[in-house]
Queue: 2 jobs
Job 1
Amino acid sequence: MITVHHLNNSRSQRVLWMLEELEVPYEIRYYERDPKTMQAPPSLKKVHPLGKSPVITDGDLVVAESGVIIDYLARTYGKDTMPPPGSGQAWLDYTYWLHYAEGSLMPPLLMRLVFEKVKTSPMPFFVKPVAKGIANKTNQTFIGPMIDTHMDFVESHLSKSTWFLGDNLSAADFQMSFPLEASVARGIVGKNRPHITEWVERVHARPAYRRALEKGGEYAFAD
Ligand SMILES: N[C@@H](CCC(=O)N[C@@H](CS)C(=O)NCC(=O)O)C(=O)O
């Protein structure tokens, strides 16, 4: 039996969504973020030394990193419904999106979040304007343009196909869901990027996604 070690408001939502689409039986073990630090509880380190979510267990196997989990589930349980491409361009495209989501798109989104947090963090009043100035400048001149380049790229890709790998939902969509729905929820992506917005709406409208949301509980990036 698969166990999803699920943290509230986290990337493991994409794993629940995938399992619901695959209609594979699984159970959820729930973990709550510390409301002040937003860190996962130490108990998650008992499953995997990094203590991050998602992580799943399947019998004796412990599988960590969303991209690996999604690929593992597609290979093990999706052979009939969502088989991962074996080779050639189709395999390259599939692997590309699995890596791109966490390896290229998430880092600037995370940097933006950190600099936004700096602005509201407690600090001596006389330091605040300086910290705020540095955070704003960094986001405007460095991180913002980097995110724009990524979003233009993804927008252009989605203007050509319904799902990331064409007409059919695939593992690439589960992996790309977290950065894109977070970007829409935070207002980074809006009407100026209609294909990303519509893709996120399409994801959120799927019955399997709604079931995953209901089972997973608190998740800030879907309505
Ligand atoms: N690249 C990893 C990132 C894992 C990660 O950072 N997860 C966050 C939740 S979205 C987490 O566990 N945060 C709590 C913490 O760091 O204590 C993946 O995709 O699995």
Note: Residues 7, 10-11, 39-40, 51-54, 65-66, 102 surround glutathione (CB under 6 Å).
Job 2
Amino acid sequence: MGEIIAQILTKTSGACVMNTDKKLFLLDVDNIQGYIFDTNKLRTIIGASWIIDHINAADDGNTLELLKKNGFGSTIDDIRKHKDFIYSSGGNTKIIFDSFEKAQKFETAITYAYARYEIPVTTYIQTVDDTDFINKTLIPAETALAQKKYSKAFEMDIPASPYFKICELCGKRYASEKSRKSVVCNICKVRYDKGGKKTRLFPDYTFVTNMEKMRLRSDMVALVVMDGNRIGEKIAGLDSIEKLQEFAAALESIIKDAFDLSLDRTFPDEKSACSFGSIRPLIMGGDDLCFIIDAANALNFVNTFTQEIAGQSQNQNGPFGRQGVQFSTGILFAKRNYPFNFAYRIAHSLLRSAKRYSREHKDCSAVDFHFLLTSSGDEIEKVRENEYRYGDHFLTAKPYLASELDSLRTAAVNLRLLSKNKIKSMRKILRLGRYQSTVELLKYAIRMDQAERKKYRDLLNSFGWRKHKGEHFWRTRLLDLAELTDMVRR
Ligand SMILES: [Zn+2]
């Protein structure tokens, strides 16, 4: 009886699923941003980001070195082109191994490489079904990995102890005994040291690692967080490993090219010197991008980058399809010395807001931005309610489509025909409601000459109070312009 069942089972499994000995290995770094932004020191942030990217994606990093030992090839090129190496970037690794033993051995070694720096990762090993790799192997494995990730216990806070000092950089781990002068833990010490390393995608460029040395036109800096729209869905739509490999490689290369070109267009002098003081990349992996930039150049740079990346990736028959890769962006403008960990959280909520807006607008690139006036670390929706809403009036029309950035910038430059004080007074005036505020704003036109008056009235007409069909709120874009006047170059 048992034998018959065994035979039936073998037959069914043979007919339905082509199980092989091959195993798909998946690895995700958990909460990359949480790890990178658990400190306020720029150099430690850069170092933390470098360590993850190095282990995950660098030619001489742990992942590729281990694959070399596993017979994936003797040169980096061989390994990267190996049919079982799917990709490893942006904190994700996907590789196929010949056997469970090999996959497990790799899992142990690579997990240790991350654990040395207390970087939490989740891994999963799945049997490969050759009949339909994407739907029968990759997607079930991704689902299982996600479940495993979210069922993990929450991190335990270490209790305060009178005998040990807490690290002053992360405020989380115990400071190591050796360094009495600076109260820093071992992890932050290594991260700080690695902060001086070159950025993987731009090994020939030098970027500042010290916030005080950032070249800023005013004292304002912008923290920019970007990511590609619907990348996960695009990947799920691919139908073979080869296409997946092609997709990952092409994505990294167009991001690199578009970023490089934006550096050239925005900071030509720094680019020709290969040394940058106005911009500092913090995260560049997969489709995730995070950098700090001189506030006055932020819109400019983001605009160039999103346009360039869309242009390079739009191709009916290419891996990204007709629409190409569209990006969503969150930009937080803040004072140079504003704490990064708070800034990052707000910038990320701006990114989420831009993503929502983008989804409502055919997935086109969208941008949301905010000027930090108060030090509240609230979610952006809450801040907007508090600072911009009066009854059924909203003093902002954010987020915007990336395609609107150019006209927004031009209008902000035009608004400079008003004096600084008048621009400053707009916030107060706009709070008076749409009728009275319009009257007050028109008074500014009295002393203008004819050409200026026309320019000004055009601005009020195009950017003043408006209520769109089906919308509950009256909105004006004038305050958005007023905020931007200092942040745009002519
Ligand atoms: Zn620390």
Note: The pocket of zinc ion is lined by residues 167, 169-170, 173, 184-185, 187-188 (CB under 6 Å).
